[in-house]
Design goal:
single chain; 3 domains; four-stranded antiparallel sheet; two-stranded antiparallel sheet; rod-shaped
Amino acid sequence: MAIVKNTASGAVQKDDAVDQLKNTDVVKSKSVHLLEGLLGNADRMLVPKLKTKSPNKFHRIITQQVKKQTWLGSLRLRHAMIIGSFLAFVAVPAVLASIYMIFIASDQYHSSASFSVRSIEAAGAPDILGMFSQASTGNTLSDSYILMDFVRSERMLAEVEKKFDLEKIYAARGLDYFYGMAPGLPLESKLDYWRKMIDINFDHASGIMQLQVKAFDPQQSQAIAKFVIQQSEIVINNLSASARDGVLKAARDEMYLAENRLAKARMGVRQYRDASQEVDPVEGAKLAAQLIGGLEAQLVQMNADLATAKTQMSDDTPRMRVLKARIASAEEQLASERQRLGSGSADGLSSGATGDVAGRIQKYEILETEREFAERAYTASLGSLEKARIDANNKQRYLAVFIEPTLSQLAQYPARFLNSFLVGLGLLFAWAVFVMGYYNIRDRT
């Protein structure tokens, strides 16, 4: 502040104060420095300090007038760099992207279809086989995800290339090299481009899958979509056949084992009958027991007759000799029949002799038990195979297409204005982050 004396001769003293201001050092406070930094170098405040002996002091601010500069000359270097970077990295690329999207990008037509993977649900049968048809329907969720991966896989791309010439269908139109397929691309690049031109979504709640195929021609997009659905049906049928074969394989293996076991058991019984020359040794044992019983009855009767004859005649008479001979013959025959029925001792149990009737019955019972068990096992395996067949039928999958591939009449891709706006917004965001980061680092250092 300038301190000037208040006298009657104000004009003279004002000139003296101005002269003193010209020859006096400038003293500035912190607030003045801050204000100068905000205003720039155009206007600065000079605050001279005058020392007088007068107790009354007045302060006056004298502003130095500086010649006004033009607005372009007043710009600093950093302002020019910010504007230049905005033009170079935001404005110009956004304009070029908009021009490309609006005037150069080719029209793309889409064909959409909707389908789902379903399974056959068996209804309850009124007969005894109804218990077999109550198998629960398998979950088709995993099959749907498998189908999604297949549509986006290299195998699907290979199948489509066998049917269509993708390089010709998706060749660049005019100057649109961004959305077109370059010729001679490697497999990985073709797969990336294929995944850009095809889109498949799966609704977990409803199980509906939506397929969308894009191409530069509406008929070509529809044809490709139909072919993709055909290949998807083949994959689902193969999965269904694999699941069916997997369910039936174990049941068929068990049935074949039971059948072979039954055949061996029946062959063993037949060989025994051929060797023993009897159909059933049990029936032969019954006949042998009857024969032994008859011989014992005859022997008892002949012994009674012999005892009666002894009371009436001597032993040398012909009748006595005949009775004795008949009794001896009956005893030999009875002993022979008993020997055929069994050995009559405990040694025969450990020796394992099978020449007698008891041994033959034992061997026959073993063979017959094996045959009966094999028959039951074979019957059970047939029932298991039938149940497995019904379960396998319930596990069959099929592709239910309820919206066929559509034929587009209006090009909806690419979204020209939306893509232009997104490109400009992305460039602006990246430029703003870069500038803010730069000045943040600059202020800290």
